[in-house]
Design brief:
6 helices; Cytochrome Bc1 Complex, Chain D, domain 2; binds heme C; about 110 residues; mainly alpha; single chain
């Protein structure tokens, strides 16, 4: 019986430490959020170049010239199938709507 009580106390302490850890995570939240948002948008750089500023006439559309709202509209159209393409329809389906909004916010013209 004592053994079980001690286990419970240990569990309680462990859970307390874990929740203290998540308070710290909230404090670092802004930085982590920016990093998360930048890393989502960075997945596009392999084809569209850093920040979407690819090579002029390089065979890939330069997406940095699109407005934030137009970019989101294109991404949602690729995702829904309203716009066809070779790569983007499959790719866009891999992101949630919220992630596409973040990507358009990071890469699109403000
Ligand atoms: C593997 C290469 C590749 C990657 C990675 C890629 N794209 Fe594309 N993107 C293309 C190609 C190719 C097109 C032309 C449409 C098509 O064929 O799918 C395109 C078209 C677009 C367009 C339409 C441009 C216009 O002028 O209307 C947008 C917007 C776009 N991509 C955004 C993105 C975003 C945002 C990401 C990252 C989440 C991304 N792309 C990742 C290859 C890529």
């Amino acid at each position: 019986m004592i053994y079980f009580r001690r286990t419970f106390v240990q569990l309680f302490v462990a859970v307390s430490i874990m929740s203290a850890g998540s308070f710290e995570a909230i404090a670092q939240g802004d930085e982590a959020k920016v990093l998360y948002q930048r890393s989502l948008a960075a997945t596009c750089a392999s084809c569209h170049g850093t920040d979407g500023k690819g090579v002029e006439n390089g065979g890939m559309p330069l997406i940095h010239q699109l407005s934030q709202s137009n970019m989101l509209a294109q991404l949602m159209a690729f995702k829904s199938g309203a716009r066809s393409g070779t790569i983007m329809p499959q790719l866009a389906k891999g992101y949630t709507d919220e992630q596409l909004e973040i990507i358009a916010r990071v890469l699109g013209q403000k």
